[in-house]
C-alpha cells in the first residue's frame, strides 16, 4: 500500500512535468505501471477534449457550407471532407509533420512581425491539429446527413410561425439536426478518443519523455519483455473512459430528446466495425 502511495506521489503527474524526472529502470511494480500509464492518459484526454471541442464547431460550419447553394462554399467543403475521410489518419499525421518541419525554424515574417513556427512540430500542437481536422471531416458528414433528413413537418411548422434565417436555424434546424446526428456523433467521439493512441506512432515527438498512455505502456513492455501487463492496463483505462464518454454523451442525448415520447431511453453504443 505504501509503495502505491509513493508511486502516485512520484509519477501521478509525471506526464505533465510534475514529479520524478527519471523513469524507473528495474524491478517495476504493478503500481508503478498503473500510475505511469494513467499519468500518460492525461495527454490522450487532452487530445480528445480539444479535438472534439474545436472540431465540433468546425464540423458544423463545414456541414452548412456543404448544404450551401454557392459552389464557392460547397466545393471547398466537399474537397476537405473527401480528403480527410478518404486518407488514413496515420498518413495524415506523417504528411502534416513533414509539411510543418519544412517551415523556417526562425519563423515566418508577417507584416514585419516574426511568427514562431517551431511549436507546430510538437505533439501537443501538431498532432492536435491533425486530430481536429480529421474529426471535423467525419463529423461534418454526419451533421450534413442530419441536415438533409430534417422532418418536413418541423420545417413547415417553423415557416408557419414566421421563422426565417438565423432564428429558424437556431431554434429548429440546428437542435433537430443534433438530435438526429447525436448517436452517430457519439461513435465518432469514441473513435477519436481511441485514435489518440496513434500520436505515439506518429512523427510528432513527445516533449522530454512526457508521452501518452501508450508511450509508458510501450516502455514497460520493452523493459520487461512482457506485453501482457502494460498493454492490458492501458486497454482497461480506455475501456473505463469510453464508458464515461458514453454516459456523458448519453446525458446530452437525453437533453436533446427531452421533449419526445420515450426520451428516457438510454443511448446505445453501436460501434462502427468498418470505417
Report a brief summary of the structure:
This protein has 275 residues and is mostly helical. It contains 10 helices and 2 strands. The protein has a single domain (30-257), classed as MetI-like fold (Orthogonal Bundle), CATH 1.10.3720.
Q: What would you note in describing this structure?
A:
By secondary structure, the chain is an all-alpha fold. It has helices at 2-11, 30-67, 71-86, 89-100, 123-148, 152-160, 165-195, 198-201, 213-224, 227-256; strands spanning 108-110, 113-115. The protein has a two-stranded antiparallel sheet. α2 (30-67) packs antiparallel against α3, α2 crosses α5 and α7 packs antiparallel against α10. One of its GO terms (molecular function) is transmembrane transporter activity. Residues 41-250 form the ABC transmembrane type-1 domain. Belongs to the binding-protein-dependent transport system permease family. HisMQ subfamily.
- Write down the CATH topology: MetI-like fold
- Give the count of structural domains: 1
Span from first to last CA?
44 Å
The largest pleated sheet is described as:
2 strands, antiparallel
Per DSSP, the total helix count is 10
Protein name: ABC transporter permease subunit
Keywords: Cell inner membrane, Cell membrane, Membrane, Transmembrane, Transmembrane helix, Transport
Family: Belongs to the binding-protein-dependent transport system permease family. HisMQ subfamily.
Subcellular location: Cell inner membrane; Cell membrane
